Amino acid sequence: MPVQCYENVSKDVKKIIKIDTENTSYVIGVIDDEQFLGHIYYGAYLNDYHLAYALRIQENPFVPSQNNGERLSFLDSFSMEYPAHGLGDFREDCISIEMPNGSTGLSLSFVSLNILEEKPRLSGLPSTFGDKGECTCVEIVCEDVHTGLKVVLLYTAFEKADVITRSVRIVNAGKAPLYLTRVLSACLDMDDKEFEVLSLHGSWARERQIQRMPVGYGRYSVESLRGESSHQEHPFMALLTKGTNQEYGEVYAMHFVYSGNFKALVEKDQFDQIRMVMGIHPEDFKWKLESGCEFQAPEVVLVYSGEGLGKMTRAFHDFYRNHLIQGTYRDKERPVLINNWEATYFDFDKEKLIQIAKEAAQSGIEMLVMDDGWFGNRFDDKRALGDWYVNEEKLPGGLKALADEVNGLGMKLGIWFEPEMISPDSDLYRAHPDWAIAIPGREGSLCRNQYVLDLTQREVVDYVYGRISQILHSANIEYVKWDMNRQLSDIGSAYLPADQTGELYHRYMLAVYELQERMLKEFPYLLLENCSGGGARFDPGMLYYSPQIWCSDDTDAIERLKIQEGTALIYPLSTMGAHVSACPNHTVGRSTPLETRGHVALAGTFGYELDVTKLSEKEKEMISLQIAVYHKYNELVRCGDYYRIASYSENHFYDCYGVVSKDKTEALYTFVQVLGRPNHRSRRIYLKGLAPEKKYRIEGEEEINTGDVLMKAGYLVQNMWGDFRSRLIHLTEV
After folding, report:
1. What pLDDT is attached to residue 10?
2. Given 553, 556, 641, 655, the catalytic residue
């Protein structure tokens, strides 16, 4: 059984709740007459449940019932399952409130447990899913008797996937309204094991850079208060035992299924105890919860690996492919597209787009995506956001005429939207200046010459969706690139009551989810690709609605090595929008061989970001060959197991990674020589993921080797002439 409950384990331990997957166990204890909920264990699978000793309740400080009610030191050292604020636990807490009398303290006691055969949907939120038999859920209900607040902790064990998810639902069962000022979704309390913390930081064009450091005393956090998961930080944190690498060591990872403000924090206290928490950022969060109402917090995905980062990566990949991504394209090869942005920017018309489409079609490209500049008087980025009407000066006959002509070439048509934004210089803003997020009485702060729409208002949401729907109905549009090019600030609303302004960030995010949900329900055939200034909302929340997300606005192949390494640490390659762009690259000015650009983009959804009409015949022929390679390896790249062989971010000279089919009969490794070195011998790389006993031949070579030879003795890659050179190494079983 994935979930088991053991009663009256000892005098002080009233219950032990054990949640299992194939290779992991999660154990919770209910102790003392006051029914404290304590965290006992999370890690490698345990056959036994006799773990009461791990709670240390026979050590000083004793549980309150044994200590005449003395609870302060107890609460500040006890391993809490879901720590509350204000009554004695001085570590980072998960929930806090504000009552009408000004009090903030909470004490949560266990009430009941309910085992569910099916995972409930989280109201208004993206979340993981599983069919009956794939997962088991347990609801643990806790209560603060003084306020009537109920806290429902939901755990879901995905047995085969080796993943446990957590979420929290808050119910105000009291008679008076109260304010939630903090609702985090998950907490792990454990003893320190000389942990290091791994996180992903960055900026625009440098997203998801890997950072690793020892956990010291005090608190270390990664967080976003930008109204989105952000370029700068990522809603992911992992604790690693010292010396953990791709194959060895323990990993405790948390990943937040949410796209707005978040906080992930690790704390080491005076007793060398570790607490890791994750959830909605409490700053500027204040949710009014009326009597009888509920608040649903987003979900956290927990992955434990006892075999290094590599196993963690493959667990996340498989889990997201099977239990988060949905829709028509979940298990399908994605069309090879060409986006006109880097080719034309705003300077295009129908004639130019058709020229690009004709050349692209001849090379085997399958879709034309028209980017920013097709609507209103959008001739630059200073105007017209919100005016979602076709500019017929650029596109005579509208979208239908363009779509018909593109379809006639055997290609699909996609378009760009930025529906969450409004330009001050727009007809929409002139008609509805109060629809922009702004502090009443204060002029709003511009970014990229635009404001953010106040999506907390039903009228605004319905207007935006009406425009999206009308446009998509007007022509055969089969792809939408959904962009969001500025972060939220000046948090205020012309419509929200003053005591609900603290709800704006989260209500905004719920509205974005609603818009995408409505669009995909009405247009289920659409391929949606989320984008936010490149990769600012590359997160599991967005992945629930779109099977691929634009990875970064930095399309330079060499810069992409680090970006894609950090992204692939937790996301399947099939989720990463990756394109071949023109050289010199528009972001960094680097010129990289077309072959290398193609090889790097192959570790993603694959497409082009250039003016194909300006290429030489030789380059056009190479594009045709690249597309053939994409089709040849797509199923392997999309569905295979990912292995990191070497990291350019660590060695500063070369990069190497691979994908191996589930049955171990085929593998593809990508080797990129970033910098050439003089007087250097061939480089030995140790392949990973092969079956030791199987025999393999490398495409283009005669020699046959067993998997164990290639993994233990290695494979020699000859030094290549020049910088930014690459090679694909394709193996098949013989």
Report:
1. 87
2. 553
Continuous segment of H or E residues that includes residue 458: helix 458-473
Indicate if 723 belongs to the active site.
no
On the question of pLDDT at 11 being above 90, the answer is no
Q: Give me the DSSP letters along 329-340.
A: TTTSPPPPEEES
Q: Which residues of 291-325 are buried (b: 16+ CB within 10 A; e: fewer)?
A: eeeebbbbbbbbbbbbbbbbbbbbbbbbbbbbbbb
- Are 28 and 42 within 8 A, CB to CB? no
CATH topology assigned to domain 645-733: Immunoglobulin-like (2.60.40)
pLDDT exceeds cutoff 90 at 66: no
Residue closest to 438 by CA, chosen among 383, 483, 501: 501
pLDDT for res 570: 98
> Is the per-residue pLDDT at 68 higher than 90?
no
pLDDT classification of 150: cutoffs 50, 70, 90:
very high
Task: Give burial (CB, 10 Å; 0-12/13-18/19+) of 486.
Answer: buried
- The DSSP result for 645-689, as a single string, is EE-HHHHSSEEEEEEE-TTSSEEEEEEEE-S--TT--PEEE---S
The distance in angstroms from the start CA to the end CA of the chain is 41
Homologous superfamily of 86-323 in CATH? alpha-galactosidase from lactobacil brevis (2.70.98.60)
Phi and psi angles of residue 378, each rounded to the nearest 5 degrees, phi first: -80, 80
Q: Does residue 717 contact residue 683 with C-beta atoms inside 8 Å?
A: yes
DSSP character at residue 621: H
Helix then strand then coil, in percent of the chain rounded to 5, is 25, 30, 45
- Kindly give the residue spans of alpha helices, DSSP state H, lying in 259-363: 308-323, 341-344, 350-363
Report yes or no: 509 and 491 within 8 Å, Cβ to Cβ: no
Domain ranges of the chain: 86-323, 337-613, 645-733
Is the CB of residue 372 less than 8 Å from the CB of residue 663? no
Residue whose pair of structure tokens reads 């190479």 in the numeric block: 622
Known catalytic membership, residue 192:
no
Q: Which residues contact 301 (CB under 8 A, 6 or more apart)?
A: 128, 163, 165, 254, 255, 256, 257, 316, 319, 540
List, for residues 528-556, the tens digit of each pLDDT value.
Answer: 999 999 999 999 999 999 999 999 999 99
The owner of tokens 């609801």 is: 139
**110-134: burial string, b at 16+ Cβ within 10 Å, e else:** beebeeeeebeebeebbbbbbeeeb
Task: Give how far Cα 652 sits from Cα of 558, 559, 670, Å.
Answer: 11, 12, 16
- The whole-angstrom separation of Cα 581 and Cα 586 is 8
Residue 212 in this model has a pLDDT that exceeds 90 = yes
Q: Which fold is adopted by the domain 337-613?
A: TIM Barrel (3.20.20)
pLDDT above 70 covers a percentage of the chain that reads 100
Q: Is the pLDDT of residue 46 over 90?
A: yes
> How far is residue 577 from each of residues 262, 327, 509, 547, 602, measured CA to CA in Å?
24, 17, 22, 10, 10
> Residue 648 pLDDT more than 90?
yes
pLDDT for the residue numbered 65: 86
Give 613's DSSP letter: G
List 483, 539, 554, 655, catalytic entry: 483
Q: Above 90 in pLDDT, residue 195?
A: yes
Task: In whole angstroms, give the CA distance from residue 262 to residue 278.
Answer: 7
User: What is the per-residue pLDDT across 160-170, written as a single tens digit (0 to 9) for each?
Assistant: 999 999 999 99
DSSP characters for 377-418? Answer: T-SSTTS-TT--SB-TTTSTTHHHHHHHHHHHTT-EEEEEE-
Q: For 615, which DSSP code? A: S
As a whole number, mean pLDDT of residues 344-355 equals 98
Residues in the chain: 734
Give mean pLDDT, residues 100-113.
95
